[in-house]
Backbone:
């Protein structure tokens, strides 16, 4: 006979002590529920620790539903409206954590990211929540209104189970597909997962060209048919990275071209023609170096088979137009992405049609909740993914 589930010592068990799991558990605890959080890692919230270059870009003041990608663009609206960036700032203020805006509404801690982790753990403590690390989940089942969770540390039971084990990005930090396995087990559909906010890799001549100027950065508009981002781009040993590329990667499908507009907002042809009029003895290389990093300028000239030492006086307007066109509409075809190894997030995930947007509760099984990155809601770069973690966790805590 299978062992009977123990009588529940907890009102809720939360799987995953990351941003969403800790925050949800602390709010449930504060509301008087007895909560246990378990995680297979040795330390909680490791992604918070490494986020934002160690200073955690914890939210974005421009948070709005259109900054999130999902099969159902309406799903995130309710949670995002009910737990806002200001709510999180109020929480930081209560813990005397100070912050600054870097760019594009991105808010970072003045302290190290560990301050956010300490705050999450203090909040958990204040609500009486318990945390067990180094604990493997071996199975989850449900009967008679109770979830049974078998773990390396023994059997647990609770009437509510919150899944907050995140997505697949950075497996060496403990990412696993547990949330998707549990979702499937209870009849949920999964929107195909893919690496997002991730650098592109290239093969052939593009790879060699980009690697040859690895480390060079420039402003660019990177676009696919579905989205365009004006930010910095970085050439790497493997291809292209930098914020503009990471952003557009979330909208990219394998095989699709990406259009790069270098110097967005600059009339390049006009600028070169003015230079020709004012400084006819200037070489093409030097005219381009006034606009772009030198190594990139030389790469562009070589790719357009233009002689760098040609004087502007000897260069026709048609050639300047061609050069400007190459810069403003540079179409590249990534061979792929760097994949889960470096992706900041997982796009796709648990299909939102199976979840309540108000409480994040499963529509298939009462008492089961999914929050954070495992859900098919993916934010832009810049603090949006943590805001989703906080907001979905707050919604889940209200429900559970
Ligand atoms: P998260 O991944 O944080 O937590 C999941 C937890 O579940 C982990 O503790 C894990 O160990 C545990 N777990 C997984 N599988 C398990 C299993 N089988 N059994 C038990 N436990 C299990 N976002 C942002 O808004 N601003 C930023 O600055 C950054 N920066 C950033 C940098 C880097 C390098 C990465 C990889 C990611 C970011 N992000 C980010 C994204 C952000 O980190 C991410 O969206 C959130 O951490 C998601 O929070 P969750 O709690 O859903 O998952």
Residues:
């Amino acid at each position: 006979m299978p062992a009977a589930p123990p009588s529940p010592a907890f009102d809720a068990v939360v799987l995953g002590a990351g941003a969403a799991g800790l925050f949800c558990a602390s709010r449930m605890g504060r509301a008087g529920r007895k909560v246990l959080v378990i995680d297979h890692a040795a330390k909680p919230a490791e992604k918070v620790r490494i986020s934002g270059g160690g200073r955690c870009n914890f939210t974005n003041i421009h948070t709005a539903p259109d900054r999130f990608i999902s099969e159902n663009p309406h799903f995130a609206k309710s949670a995002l409206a009910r737990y806002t960036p200001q709510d999180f700032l109020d929480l930081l203020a209560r813990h005397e954590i100070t912050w600054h805006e870097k760019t594009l509404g991105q808010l970072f801690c003045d302290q190290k990211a560990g301050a956010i982790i300490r705050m999450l753990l203090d909040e958990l403590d204040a609500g009486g929540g318990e945390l067990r690390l180094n604990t493997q989940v071996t199975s989850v089942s449900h009967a008679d209104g109770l979830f049974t969770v078998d773990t390396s540390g023994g059997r647990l039971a609770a009437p509510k189970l919150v899944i907050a084990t995140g997505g697949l990005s950075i497996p060496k930090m403990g990412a696993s597909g547990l949330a998707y396995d549990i979702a499937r087990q209870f009849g949920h559909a999964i929107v195909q997962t893919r690496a997002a906010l991730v650098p592109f890799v290239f093969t052939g001549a593009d790879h060699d060209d980009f690697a040859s100027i690895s480390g060079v950065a420039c402003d660019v508009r990177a676009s696919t048919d579905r989205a365009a981002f004006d930010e910095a781009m970085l050439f790497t040993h493997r291809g292209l990275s930098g914020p503009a590329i990471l952003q557009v990667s979330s909208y990219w499908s394998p095989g699709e071209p990406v259009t790069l507009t270098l110097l967005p907002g600059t009339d390049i042809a006009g600028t070169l023609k003015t230079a020709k009029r004012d400084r006819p003895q200037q070489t093409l290389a030097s005219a381009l170096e006034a606009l772009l990093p030198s190594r990139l300028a030389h790469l562009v000239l070589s790719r357009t088979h233009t002689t760098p030492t040609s004087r502007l006086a000897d260069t026709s307007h048609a050639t300047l137009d061609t050069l400007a066109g190459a810069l403003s509409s540079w179409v590249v075809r990534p061979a792929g992405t760097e994949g889960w190894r470096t992706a900041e997030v997982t796009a796709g995930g648990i299909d939102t049609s199976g979840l309540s947007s108000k409480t994040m509760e499963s529509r298939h099984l009462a008492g089961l909740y999914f929050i954070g990155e495992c859900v098919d809601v993916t934010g832009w770069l810049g603090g949006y993914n943590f805001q989703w973690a906080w907001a979905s966790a707050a919604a889940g805590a209200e429900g559970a």
User: Anything to note?
Assistant: The longest strand covers residues 228-235. The chain has a mean pLDDT of 96. The pocket of dihydroflavine-adenine dinucleotide is lined by residues 15-21, 39-41, 47, 50-52, 56-57, 137, 164-166, 169-170, 174-176, 178, 344-345, 372-373, 383-386, 389 (CB under 6 Å).
